[in-house]
Amino acid sequence: MVVATSIAERQQGRRVVQPFVKWAGGKSQLLGQLLPLCPPRFGCYLEPFVGGGALYFALQPERAVLGDLNAELIDTYRAIREDVEAVMAALERHRYDREHYYAVRALPPASLSAAERAARFIFLNKTGYNGLYRVNRRGAFNVPFGRYRRPPRLYDAENLRAAARLLARAELVAAPYQQTLQAARPGDFVYLDPPYQPLTASANFTRYTSAGFGPADQEQLAEEVKRLTQRGVLVLLSNSDTPVVRARYRELGIPLDIRVVSANRRINSDSARRTGVTELVIRNYQ
Ligand SMILES: C[S@@+](CC[C@H](N)C(=O)[O-])C[C@H]1O[C@@H](n2cnc3c(N)ncnc32)[C@H](O)[C@@H]1O
User: N or C: which end of the chain has fewer CB within 10 A?
Assistant: First the structure.
């Protein structure tokens, strides 16, 4: 029998684990507001748009299924889980230097071992422009070198080892989110943090992989939330705070708790300047 434990019980005595990549839309800054909104008890934790995994590493669930469409990212999680010491040894061979950056960027990942590929991914993420992930049509990473005042720290050994211990209990899926969700059972907890609905019609979609996430994808995801709700799965979803998102979830016809969280500690009195700083959190439980 699987006994669900509470978040408080699970977190007792555990060190805080930080994401090992910088990820666009990373939730580290919002954890203080997201953690109290998580269900106190659940079966398995599923995060189908895991990215840097800020909420996963903070919650440290007993069992988890983590997925992302970005196969290089999921391969990096796998390499850390399988042999974290080899990944760290490979990271030690990298240094913050423009020429080295472009030489590493030019290496075909397939020519490297799993640990070297993971180290390359982390190195490019930490030293490339803004921690961006962008590939060209042929799937080759093409983010330019990032200029930082101080050499970025590539990894923290204790943190990476703690991440590896946690990942030993996780299943990893490199696939569209629907596939990860197939594992969801009643009583499980799903955190959905998709690429966001753009704030304005003209804004570009956030791109993390060669495939975009457009309005039709946003619609399908909302339908998925409805199906999960009907199956008794606990769902927490993040998205941008826009009228389109509010209307889409209100019109699903299921009872949802929709609230605003703010990435800004100081509340900006000028509401126009707050745009993009507040986000929506949508839950199908109280
Ligand atoms: C907003 S980010 C998640 C950020 C994450 N919560 C964090 O704390 O770093 C969205 C993620 O969804 C992934 N993604 C985009 N489209 C996807 C799809 N159709 N299925 C699964 N993952 C997808 C992207 O690669 C990206 O890592």
Answer: N
Q: Look up residue 12 and give its DSSP letter.
A: T
Site to substitute for ligand 1 among 33, 69, 76, most atoms within 8 A of C-beta: 69
Instruction: Give pTM, 2 decimals.
Output: 0.91
Do 131 and 113 sit in the same domain of this protein? yes
Count of domains observed in the chain: 2
Answer yes or no: is pLDDT of 173 > 60.
yes
Range(s) of the domain holding residue 109 = 73-157
Verify whether ligand 1 is closer than 6 Å to residue 48 (CB atom): yes
Q: What's the CA gap between 267 and 9, in Å, rounded? A: 32
Residues 181 and 57: their CA atoms lie apart, in Å, by 19
The verdict on the CB of residue 20 being under 6 Å from ligand 1 is: no
Same domain, 279 and 181: yes
pLDDT in tens, 190-233: 999 999 988 876 555 444 444 589 999 999 999 999 999 999 99
Q: Retrieve residue 10's tokens.
A: 């699970």
One domain, residues 132 and 60:
no
